[in-house]
Specification:
The chain has helices at about 15-30, 35-50, 90-100, 110-120, and strands at about 5-10, 55-60, 65-70, 75-80, 100-110, 125-130, 135-145. By secondary structure, it is of the alpha+beta class. It has one domain (about 5-145): Aminopeptidase (3-Layer(aba) Sandwich), CATH 3.40.630. α1 (about 15-30) runs antiparallel to α2. The protein is globular and about 40 Å long. About 30% of the residues are buried.
């Protein structure tokens, strides 16, 4: 893998980012039926990504993952399943930390790998919430810059 850079995404990237989102979501959320993710693909590409500030991690040949911010909320962070565990998620989080003083996100409690990942990069659980659409319990997690 050559050196990975982060840049702001543009609309021509959204189709590829939606595929990364879909593949990573199906892998990480086996407790939610795949049809849920399938049914949200169009919305992800045409609504959620365009309304977010999106940064992607790439090298000269591939896009490996992305982070989508809505103000101080991480609306999405996904890395291609075959590229997970290689530090790409951490690069994306660190990029977001460089441009924000605090960040919040919701993560499914059953997605224990992601919960551990967020804790490892400084996020703390604030409260337990419920994603009404999937009826799955979530954690609201937050990171704050210490001055």
């Amino acid at each position: 893998m050559s050196s990975i850079t982060i840049r702001q995404a543009n609309t021509s990237d959204f189709s590829g980012l939606t595929e990364i989102w879909f593949n990573a979501s199906v892998k990480a959320h086996d407790f939610i039926p795949e049809i849920y993710w399938e049914n949200n693909k169009v919305q992800m590409q045409n609504t959620y990504l365009p309304m977010s500030e999106v940064y992607l991690a790439e090298d000269t040949t591939n896009i490996y993952g992305f982070i989508a911010l809505v103000e101080n909320t991480i609306a999405a962070i996904f890395v291609s399943p075959e590229q997970q565990g290689k530090g790409i998620g951490k690069l994306l989080i660190n990029h977001a930390k460089g441009i924000r003083n605090n960040l919040e996100l919701n993560v499914y409690q059953q997605n224990t790998n992601s919960v551990r990942f967020y804790e490892s990069v400084g996020f703390k659980v604030l409260e337990e919430t419920l994603d009404e659409e999937t009826e799955s319990k979530e954690f609201l997690m937050r990171w704050e810059r210490s001055f």
